Structure formats: structure tokens, C-alpha cells
Amino acid sequence: MAEHAITPRVARRLEAVQRLLIDGQWQLAGDGRSEDIFNPSSGEIITTAATATEEDANRAVAAARASFNDHRWTGLTPAQRAKVLWRVADLIGAHAEEMAELEMLDAGKFYLGALNGEVPFAAECFRYYAGWCTKIEGTTKQLSTVPGQAFHIYTQREPIGVAALIIPWNGPLVQAAWKIAPALAAGCSVVIKPASQTPLSITRLGELMIEAGVPDGVINIISGGGSTIGRLLAEHPDVGKVSFTGSTEVGKQIIDAAKGNLKKVTLELGGKSPVIVFDDADLEGAIAGAAEAIFSSAGQVCVAGSRLYVQDSVYDEVISGVAEIAKNMKVGPATNSAMDMGPLISRQHLQDVYRMVEAGLAEGAKLAAGGKLITDGGGYFIEPTVLADTTHRMSVVSDEIFGPVLVAMPFSRQEQVVALANDSEFGLAASIWTRDISKAHLTADAVRAGLVWINCHGIPDMAVPFGGYRQSGWGRENGYESLLQYTELKSVIARL
Ligand code: NAD
């Protein structure tokens, strides 16, 4: 299929400055400042977005706090709140083409991939948490400390209050939905800060949320710098919860910033996820799966399968199979659905990824595929890259690259590969490829990661908790577990 042409509706939208949403009002930044937004497929400026000032951020927090205090959201019945969230999902579905186009232009997602993947998945997230609104429950308890007297004891879940949601540029719409939907289902009011590169789909989502009936002040959107506006939100005394997705380095800064009022913190951070291929695996499936695990979204996925461990006897076959796929991939603009892999998010990130590849080669990795920048056209492209015969002493093996760069190593025994897989500061995800069901589950048990796939990689689901061990984070997203992280638990002991 050919180039996806931008529809007049989206083109018109991009002519205007993208605004901030504070207390139900779309507005420019207090000082009128805005930032250029680039299309990573072409390097061209596509629009500009208002950059919040500190005063704007403070007003957004105040609006969220006022909306929480006057119960304009929590005062609705759970079923009424569920209907609003369901309506958000329906509106995302009704505007799916527009949302997919914005995700394509801003985040470099393929149009069809976004239309059939990210956009319906974001809608599904709102439906999933709409379902939880009416099912937030406490428990009853029995007292043992005071014999001979009657008590009624129960627990209840209450929303924390104002939740600050800070998200990265990879998959902005889904990342936003994963935080906004459970926060609102729990009864919180939110201030969300998109990454400064990718505010477009979240701005449109904000419009749809207002249209769906989310009251003014319950959802606020402020685009702006991380070290200024992001930090202010993480420090703010009126914010009770910060949910952050991004790099491990910034995650640690969030912890420091949140100390002042000991706000609750959830962190979804980096990863260096192992893909383990045993010699009894369906090799055709494992080779295709390993390639997909690293090259999907050009490797800019937190759960990317970026370390490949292959059992000795099939190592050469698997590496050459993955390398062959890499060499045959068509790399080009996300607007062209004939391409297999799109751009990196920015020129800076492209340079960082390329520097990591050079460092790996300098440290002795063997180039099995790729390794070059693609410089024709103005977009930010690099070839899908496979570095073979790497070791755990190399920075390409220890550090997250967040690009389409796979490092590969052989192993001989199950205990050895488990030790290698666990020899990482991260522990976000892993996949295990084998036909032996016992080996699969025993290995899954031994690998220290928050999400383990067997004979597949990267499949998400709203019902399945998602998050990391070790320096991959604190807490979980998705499932009931995520919703609970936007609540406080109260126990009530009543003498009858
Ligand atoms: P980043 O940490 O640089 O930025 C993430 C967000 O934090 C942005 O909105 C940014 O503006 C903001 N920010 C930056 N400095 C801040 C500060 N001092 N205080 C408060 N906020 C600040 O990450 P990125 O480069 O945008 O995204 C890539 C990283 O995100 C990778 O490490 C990737 O693994 C991680 N990620 C993790 C998950 C997950 O679920 N575990 C999902 C996607 C991405």
C-alpha cells in the first residue's frame, strides 16, 4: 500500500498551536511559549505545542485538587463514572482514524499499526477500567484482641486524591490511557504531562474526555519540560500520587522529588529483556519471534527483547535467521505501510543509539546485520542491527539502548542461561522458547522479571499486570493491581 495522505481534518488541527487543558479550558501557556513538534519520519516541523509554565502547572494541580475536594467526580455513582469512561472508549473508537494519524505523525507509529493496535487498545483500556468502577470493594474482619464484645470491622478503598501522571514519548496514547483510566476509575483527579515531543494524541484524547462528560478539573493536560514541569508535579505538596513511566535515571529523580510529602510513587522504568531460545524450540517461530521482539516499533518498547540467548547447537542457525530477517526489512517513513520498520523518535535519540552500536563493535561484538544510519530523507532511521558473540562485560549488553539493536550470546545449560538472564540491573520482561513444558515453566519461575512470555513475546492485555523487578520499577500497571495503586486502604473498627 502507498503513502498515507494526511486528512484535511488533521492538517487543519496542526495549523493551530496545541493547547494546555486546565480546569476544562483549552489555553496557551501563561507566557505564550510553545515548542516545535517534529515528524520523526521526515524531520519536519508539523505543529507547535504550548509549553506549560510553572504557574500553569500550579493552576492545573489547583484545579485537580478543587475538583477532588468538591466531589464533582467521586460524587457520581460508580455506575455513572463507568458510563463516562465507557463513552471515552466509544469516542476514541469513533475517531480512530484521526487518532492513528496523530500517533503516526508525532510518535512515528505506522498508520495501520496504530489504527488496529494502539488506538483500539487505548479504547479497551477505558472499557476495562469502566468495568472496575462498580467493583471496588473492601472486606470485613474479625477481632481477636477484645474477647466478649461485639465489633463490626471493615476495610474500604478510597481514591488518593490528585494523581500526577508523567509519561514518555513511545506509545503516548496507550501510555496515557494506562494511567488515566485506572486513576479515574479509582476516583482520583489527574494532571498528565506528556513527553514534550509527543503531546498530539493526548491533546485530542483530552477533548474526547471532556466531550464524554469527564468534569472540568478532573482531567488536566500540561505539556512541558521534564526537569521543570515534570519535577514540579513530582514535588508538589497537593499531589498525592505520582505515576511515572520513563527511564530508570529519571525514575530515581522522581523518588527524590516525591519525598517532601511522601506521595505514593509508581514507576515503570527501563528494561533489557532476555529472549531465551532452547534447542528444542520451534525454531522458525522462535526466529520470527525474536526478530519481532526487538524490531517492533524500532526497538523503542520498554519490553523489547534486546538480549538474545540461544542454546549452542542451534546458535548459528538462529542468529543467521534473525540477521536474515533484519537485512530484508524495509525501513522507512511511518506514513508508508509498505515499510517494516519506522523511525526513531528524534535526531538526538538516533545519535545515541548509533553511538551504542559503535561502542559495542569497539568492545568486540560481531556485526551480523545492520549497524548503519539511513541518511537519505530527513527522518531518523537506523538499520535493524544484530550484534553477535557479545559478552556481559559489554555496555551494549548491560545498558538499555531503546532502539532496534539486538545483542546475542550462546549458552549451553538451563541454569547457565537463567544466571545470564538475571545478570542485569533490570527485570521487566523475558520470553522463553521451548517445546518442553516443564523446562518452560521452571525457567519462567527462575527468571527474575515482572512478565514472562512462553513461546511468544510482547503480547499485552489489560487484565495482565505489567511492571518490573529490580531497577525496572515499582508497582504494576494494568489489571486490578493498577487501580489499587490509586487508592488508600482504610480500616474501620466499630464497637457495637
Ligand atoms: P525519560 O525518563 O527521559 O522521560 C519520561 C518522562 O519524564 C517525560 O515526560 C519527561 O519529560 C519526564 N521527565 C524528564 N525528566 C524529569 C524529571 N527530572 N522529573 C520529572 N519528570 C521528568 O524517558 P523517555 O526517554 O521519554 O522514554 C524512554 C524510557 O522510558 C526508556 O527507558 C523506556 O524503557 C522507558 N519506558 C518504560 C516503560 C515501562 O512500562 N516500563 C514503558 C515505556 C517506556
Distance between the termini: 72 Å
Q: Estimate percent helicity.
A: 40-55%
Structural class: alpha/beta
Averaging pLDDT over every residue, what do you get?
Answer: 97
| CATH H-level superfamily title of the largest domain | Aldehyde Dehydrogenase, Chain A, domain 1
CATH topology of the largest domain: Aldehyde Dehydrogenase, Chain A, domain 1
How many domains would you count in the coordinates? 2
Q: Order of strands side by side in the largest beta sheet? A: 14-17-18-13-12-20-21
**Strand coverage percent:** 15-25%
The shape, in one word, is globular
Identify the CATH class of the largest domain.
Answer: Alpha Beta
The tally of helices reads 16
CATH architecture of the largest domain: 3-Layer(aba) Sandwich
Low-confidence runs: none
**How big is the Rg?**
23 Å
- Hetero groups bound? nicotinamide-adenine-dinucleotide
Got a strand count?
24
Largest sheet: 7 strands, mixed
Tell me about this structure:
The structure is a single chain. With 496 residues, the protein is α/β, with parallel strands linked by helices. It has 2 domains: 282 residues, Aldehyde Dehydrogenase, Chain A, domain 1, CATH 3.40.605.10; 188 residues, 3-Layer(aba) Sandwich (Aldehyde Dehydrogenase, Chain A, domain 2). Helices cover 40% and strands 21% of the residues. The chain has 16 helices and 24 strands. The strands form 7 sheets. A 7-stranded mixed β-sheet has the order 14-17-18-13-12-20-21, sandwiched between helices. Strand 10, helix 9 and strand 11 form a beta-alpha-beta unit. It is globular and about 70 Å long. The mean pLDDT is 97. Bound molecules: nicotinamide-adenine-dinucleotide. The site of nicotinamide-adenine-dinucleotide (NAD) has 29 residues, from helix 8 and helix 9.
